């Protein structure tokens, strides 16, 4: 909306949520013409009907503003307050840029670092920087809950001197509260990034922010110091705001000053009417993705460029991403795990060379940073090996993603032998590059399926009495036809990656390899491992099942890197039977001689009813008649009909029962003949004592990483079924976390890859000592 009137300046607020709605209300109440543009039609309709409402306790006040969606807005833009979520910035500015008047500008009243992105579209001269710390929430369409006083700082980008337009903005925005101008907005933004990291961590649990920060001071201080270490290296002068003073939270700060700062901060937070963060509300109430992971993407990228560790920050971001799909798993145990990661409560009491009060000698942090760069060392004291592995993997996550991208680019359709050969050749080269030469290698050639690769790697520093190897099992074929990559290549968006086979199961193999790579890099012990990759799993493993079982017989445990829906490991799978029921009748003219023939279709219908009686869902037995075919013409009694069956059973006893029942089928019409062909494609994988012990081992490792690992029994089968039936303990579903197997929605999680690889590494280390 153009600012051409002689009265109070007009404003357009793009994004009418907590921040945008609060400022829009204050400006409108002060007499400014205000237009709110928001993508939520319900929010817009509520504002049109009842005005923009600000709630303070039991009192609600309404002001009239114009409200539009981006599709209904018509006009140009002058003074724009951009208040969308950080992840929506690009789309919003793409919408704003063609409508922005030559003298107009965009003020980033957002969380995070967004000015550079805005300037890409509208120019640095039409971009205004802002720091905002407003405690508010959208509690229902059109209604903003005022959470109390906060801070608002406006300035030119890149630290330029305060301009007349900034002074004018500040004057208008003082209708909200203590808005002020500054030439160091960047210092405020970085201070808020440190404070915001604490608030983000509190969203890992369901309790008041002040209480969680108070109870977990070591983790909160270490987390904040990671952020401020990046700011310091970038030459930023941190600015205090509200009750938060950043100085006591910098690395090497006085411990007593830090405790006093915690006291002031938590006391102030307890005066706020809003006791939980907007991040918590997005997860627990709105069940939507959080924007904070976008905020800290820049911080982590800067840290990576500078060689600085961000172990705790990455752990918090990973935890929030996990909670996006399972908010019910919020737990203060996640914060307990952060406390353990700090290695102790004191951050600044030690020698200044020990960053964040943590043992700089830990090889888990030094790996990849350069042995001589003591200024950027830091990390965790020697402790849980899985934690050390995870920390190392966090510093190498982008390399893991690059490997998955390269692997996904290798087409490997189960029915394309040339593609499978090329993919396996690529895998062999990649394995050499990542793990070095194996102790031995076998390639079992198959004429009608992908070849089988078996690589054996010797044990290192093991003290376990059981010297048998651990089998790492996976498949490199996918269900996706050759050519799929042309229309659906590997893509990454934030923590999510998509592409043919990323979930089932290319990410799983990347995790297994990087787990071994981490153990090697950190010099941690591991048992002997045998890596087996087959190229026909998706078509039933008919050419590889015998080799898999033969290789696995001498292994103490088989870890199957199949995908993990909802993150659960699989300790039981149903057996799968694929059968065909064929009925043979006799043909005749259906009209001229209807009794002369014997209808195979009629008989098949009767047999289908009998088959349905074999189901026993309480016992875990399902039977599906998936495809029926029969007859030749409508006026001919059908001489032949077939039904294709899929049978799933949860126990060997049920498998025996179904086998007998199918063998005993007899025709209802004695003039027809019935025949059952096919077999059990996968035997039953039942949860035995050894498998249960392996699951408990994995759960124990996961708890050390701050996770409660679930286990599941599923109807789908894998090559683990063959091994379990042969008496080999199996830990299945230890691969990628995601969903959409065999569908265009197939995707996996980068943070999930890091966690599952660390879980694998932790299990292997434990096995090396047991």
Automatic annotation (TrEMBL):
Keywords, sorted A to Z: Hydrolase, Metal-binding, Zinc
Domain Peptidase M20 dimerisation: 571-664
Cofactor: Zn(2+)
Sequence ranges assigned to domain Ketopantoate reductase C-terminal in this UniProt record: 185-323
Classification via InterPro entries: 6-PGluconate_DH-like_C_sf (IPR008927), 6PGD_dom2 (IPR013328), ArgE/DapE_CS (IPR001261), Bact_exopeptidase_dim_dom (IPR036264), KPA_reductase (IPR013752), KPR_N (IPR013332), NAD(P)-bd_dom_sf (IPR036291), Peptidase_M20 (IPR002933)
Pfam families on file: ApbA, ApbA_C, M20_dimer, Peptidase_M20
Residues in Ketopantoate reductase N-terminal domain copies: 12-157
Descriptive protein name: M20/M25/M40 family metallo-hydrolase
Species per Swiss-Prot/TrEMBL record: Streptomyces cellulosae
């Amino acid at each position: 909306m153009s600012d051409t009137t002689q009265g109070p300046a007009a404003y357009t607020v793009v994004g009418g949520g907590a921040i945008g709605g609060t400022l829009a209300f204050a400006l409108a109440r002060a007499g400014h013409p205000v237009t709110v543009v928001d993508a939520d039609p319900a929010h817009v309709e509520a504002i049109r009907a009842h005005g923009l409402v600000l709630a303070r306790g039991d009192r609600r006040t309404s002001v009239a503003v114009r409200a539009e969606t981006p599709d209904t807005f018509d006009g140009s833009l002058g003074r724009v307050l951009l208040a969308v979520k950080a992840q929506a910035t690009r789309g919003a500015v793409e919408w704003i840029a063609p409508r922005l008047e030559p003298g107009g500008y965009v003020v980033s009243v957002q969380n995070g670092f967004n000015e550079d992105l805005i300037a890409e579209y509208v120019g640095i001269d039409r971009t205004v920087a802002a720091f905002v710390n407003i405690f508010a929430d959208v509690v229902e369409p059109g209604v903003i809950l005022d959470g109390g006083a906060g801070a608002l700082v406006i300035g030119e980008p890149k630290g330029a001197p305060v301009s007349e337009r900034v002074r004018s903005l500040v004057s208008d925005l003082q209708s909200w509260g203590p808005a002020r101008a500054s030439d160091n907005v960047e210092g405020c933004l970085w201070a808020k990034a440190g404070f915001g990291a604490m608030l983000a961590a509190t969203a890992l649990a369901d309790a008041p922010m002040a209480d969680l920060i108070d109870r977990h001071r070591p983790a909160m201080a270490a987390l904040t110091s990671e952020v401020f270490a990046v700011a310091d290296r970038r030459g930023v002068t941190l600015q205090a705001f509200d009750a938060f003073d950043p100085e006591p939270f910098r690395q090497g700060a006085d411990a007593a000053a830090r405790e006093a700062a915690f006291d002031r901060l938590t006391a102030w937070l307890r005066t706020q009417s809003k006791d939980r963060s907007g991040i918590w509300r997005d997860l627990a109430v709105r069940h939507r993705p959080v924007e904070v992971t976008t905020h800290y993407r820049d911080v982590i990228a800067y840290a990576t460029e500078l060689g600085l560790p961000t172990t705790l920050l990455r752990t918090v971001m990973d935890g929030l991403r996990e909670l996006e799909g399972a908010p019910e798993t919020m737990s203060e145990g996640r914060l307990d795990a952060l406390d353990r990661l700090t290695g102790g409560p004191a951050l600044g009491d030690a020698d200044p060379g020990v960053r964040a009060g943590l043992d700089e000698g830990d090889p888990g942090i030094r790996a990849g940073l350069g042995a001589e760069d003591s200024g950027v060392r830091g990390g965790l004291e020697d402790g849980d090996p899985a934690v050390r592995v995870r920390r190392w993997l966090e510093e190498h996550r982008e390399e893991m993603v690059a490997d998955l991208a390269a692997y996904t680019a290798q087409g490997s359709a189960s029915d394309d032998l040339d593609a499978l050969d090329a993919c396996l050749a690529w895998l062999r080269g990649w394995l050499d590059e990542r793990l070095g030469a194996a102790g031995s290698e076998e390639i079992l050639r198959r004429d009608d399926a992908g070849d089988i690769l078996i690589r054996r790697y010797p044990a290192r520093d093991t003290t376990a009495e059981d010297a048998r190897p651990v089998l790492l099992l996976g498949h490199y074929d996918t269900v996706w036809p050759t050519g799929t990559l042309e229309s659906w290549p590997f893509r990454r968006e934030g923590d999510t990656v998509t592409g043919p086979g990323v979930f089932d199961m290319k990410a799983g193999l990347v995790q297994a390899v990087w787990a071994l790579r981490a153990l090697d890099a950190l010099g941690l012990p591991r048992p002997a491992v045998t890596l087996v990759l087959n190229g026909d799993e998706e078509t039933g493993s008919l050419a590889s099942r015998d080799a898999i079982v033969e290789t696995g017989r001498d292994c103490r445990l088989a870890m199957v890197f199949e995908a993990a829906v909802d993150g659960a490991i699989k300790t039981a799978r149903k057996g799968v039977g694929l059968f065909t029921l064929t009925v043979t009748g006799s043909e005749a003219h259906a009209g001229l001689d209807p009794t002369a023939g014997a209808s195979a279709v009629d008989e098949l219908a009767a047999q289908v009813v009998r088959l349905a009686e074999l189901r026993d869902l309480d016992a875990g037995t399902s039977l599906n008649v998936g495809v029926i075919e029969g007859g030749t013409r409508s006026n001919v009694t059908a001489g032949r009909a077939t039904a294709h069956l899929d049978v799933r059973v949860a126990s060997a006893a049920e498998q025996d029962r179904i086998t007998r029942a199918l063998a005993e089928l007899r025709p209802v019409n004695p003039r027809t003949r019935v025949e059952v062909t096919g077999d059990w494609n996968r035997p039953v994988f039942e949860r035995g004592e050894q498998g249960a012990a392996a699951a408990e081992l994995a759960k124990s490792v996961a708890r050390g990483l701050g996770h409660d690992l679930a286990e599941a029994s599923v109807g789908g089968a894998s090559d683990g079924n063959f091994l379990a039936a042969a008496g080999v303990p199996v830990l299945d579903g230890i691969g990628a976390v995601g969903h959409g197997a065999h569908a265009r929605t197939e995707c996996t999680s980068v943070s999930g890859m890091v966690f599952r690889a660390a879980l694998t590494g932790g299990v292997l280390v434990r096995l090396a000592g047991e």
